[in-house]
Design goal:
homodimer; 340 residues; alpha/beta; 434 Repressor (Amino-terminal Domain); Rossmann fold; 3 domains; DNA-binding; transcription regulation (chains A, B); Peripla_BP_I (chains A, B); DNA-binding transcription factor activity (chains A, B)
Chain lengths: 340, 340
DNA sequence: GTTTATTCTGTGTACGTTCACAGACTCTCA
DNA sequence: TGAGAGTCTGTGAACGTACACAGAATAAAC
């Protein structure tokens, strides 16, 4: 007669205790690396753990410890953005690496509809996570409110404009834009313009401010075209506008790589050579940057660093440490390629 | 004197019971939508839940139910792939959507080093997840072995060559390649070649097989160039080789969009016009396809469908249902753009 | 040899659920 | 009226762990 190979029950701390001839408490102390365990007992318990194949039950541990050892990673974007924004994948990876290093698990929470919002809010209230990382929060975001009400340790990647006092990690758009523009000026360009984009966002406004900083007295508002989005088509339109207004233009700072790629097309159409006639720089070091002809000089987004930084900010709070006020601003190295 | 705003304790099922004047059991029945609850009691309990802000504690529930309501999403790739492969993000999204619809949570487990392998193996053994979705498993993968040993419900996105009997979801590379090639032939091309890539992978071999199927007797091995990787540079090299061997070539099936983009460059260098002189088709419908000049005709990868399919496969096993043998092969629509 | 400190160990309780069981209350029908 | 079926409700376990506490063993000091 063949016995049914019933799903073998997992070994508990009690099984280990019996096997090693000690009590639950002592096993618990060994498992949690606490002092006051004799060498004998420790050896016996370690052997017993190995023998019965013991792995601590997380649910039981969570229940008694009142924490889950998990951190939520909330992305509040339409699905399509995951495709378009190559950074989100790297942010996720960076956060995941930092969290797992600290023995925390990362749970992906993706919000794409109002139904999702409710589900995630419920999830957060359920104590499933000890903290959250929020990517691209919206202004007056319901999730942000839930998190605030629960007092959950939080870190934002990029910060919502209405919540300057919560911990966040971002890049210093203004300083980076300034450095990039200065480098462009150093190559001998005389008439440098900018295609500014998304001025309703912090990032867009700060990049323009950095450009203005770099030009100082030489700033000429006639050399700035403003487009609504960080998009290819917007770049084409913005460049045409600049060419019309200032045909003698010889340098362009595009607010993003996609915008820069569009600018390249408009310049090509207008018969200008890049970089000979006009130098072009982008921002983001996205996939665009390496695929344009010539490849773009741009500013590298330290995406995985952003993720790791946000994770670290959450972990700090979890450990009860203070977080830096005003957020964490990351360095953004300039990548010089062929376009300027 | 100001009282310390102590972290407010979460309401338990017991609090609800007291508030509603019933017992824990009855509340549990309402929460879990079980029958045999009077209308009175139900109303009182629902009001009480609202009032005390009760949300079930997952750890306690997991402990007694012996399950976690979570599914692991395992990606076994170097970090860089997350950047390069736009599909992984969509697969993740598709899986996440399907799982959360069934009230399961998705936990991201990314393996990038041997240390990660050990960590994830330990995690899986810890009963943190009820099932797993594995993306791009390797041959003889230690994680696959752990999963098998634990008898964890599993689904692969794309299947490792050595595990044909486990549930998987993939695309029908062969049929898709055949359909694409036939369509290319239908446009009147006489000498159609292929840049085959990654023949050591299922996908690469199947795409070549589909090409061969479509050509039938007209197949000419002289018109096939084989390159090691799905990469741009490989596409350039492959196309040069084909042009040298068969200068009269007027159609090319590139094994991926990246390869096709490389082929486009090689054709441009050789002074051939696309699509007038040579028709080019790619595979994947990746970001490349829309950025080349002209944009590529290609086969669309139903990435989010793959994720959703894998999730469904795991959920089926979780419900105790049978899974389709031989895996799930998804339809791949042809996207006809300017390159052929 | 007694006291005192130090190291080690076992036990009971609590965490917040679900589930099986037993009992109470309503109906219906003979 | 009483038996039986169907509906509803409360109670006591159990899940596997951490932690506080009490107590035993050992070592050190007088």
């Amino acid at each position: 007669m063949v016995s049914v190979p019933a799903r073998r029950k997992r070994a508990t701390i009690h099984d280990v205790a019996v096997e090693a001839g000690v009590s639950r408490g002592t096993v618990s102390r060994v498992v949690n690396d606490e002092p006051y365990v004799s060498a004998n007992a420790r050896a016996a318990i370690e052997a017993a753990i190995e023998k019965v194949g013991y792995v601590p039950n997380n649910a039981a541990r969570s229940l008694v410890m009142q924490r889950s050892q998990a951190v939520g990673f909330i992305v509040h974007e339409p699905h399509s953005l995951f495709l378009e924004d190559p950074n989100i994948g790297d942010i996720l990876l960076g956060a995941n690496t930092a969290l797992s290093h600290a023995d925390y698990q990362m749970v992906c929470l993706i919000i794409d509809s109002d139904r999702d919002t409710a589900r995630v809010a419920r999830y957060l209230s359920g104590g499933f996570v000890d903290g959250v990382i929020i990517v691209s929060a919206r202004q007056n975001d319901p999730i942000t409110r839930v998190v605030e009400k629960l007092g959950l340790p939080t870190a934002f990647v990029g910060h919502p404009p209405d919540l300057r006092d919560l911990p966040f990690v971002g890049i210093d758009n203004r300083t980076s834009a300034r450095a990039l523009t200065e480098r462009l000026l150093d190559t001998g360009r005389r008439r440098v313009g900018m295609i500014a984009a998304a001025l309703d966002r912090d990032s867009g406004a700060d990049r323009l401010a950095g450009f203005t900083d770099a030009l100082g007295d030489a700033f000429d508002s006639n050399l700035v075209a403003s487009v609504p989005l960080y998009a290819y088509a917007a770049g084409v339109a913005g460049m045409r506008e600049l060419l019309q207004r200032s045909p003698e233009i010889d340098g362009v700072f595009a607010a993003s790589d996609a915008v820069a790629a569009g600018a390249l097309e408009a310049l090509r159409d207008a018969g200008r050579r890049v970089p000979e006639d006009v130098g072009v720089v982008g921002f983001d070091d996205s996939a665009w940057a390496r695929r344009t002809q010539p490849p773009l000089s741009t500013v590298h987004q330290p995406a995985s660093g952003l993720g790791a930084g946000a994770a670290e900010l959450v972990l700090q709070q979890l450990r009860g440490e203070a977080t830096p006020v005003g957020g964490l601003l990351l360095q953004t190295p300039i990548v010089w390629r062929g376009s300027a």
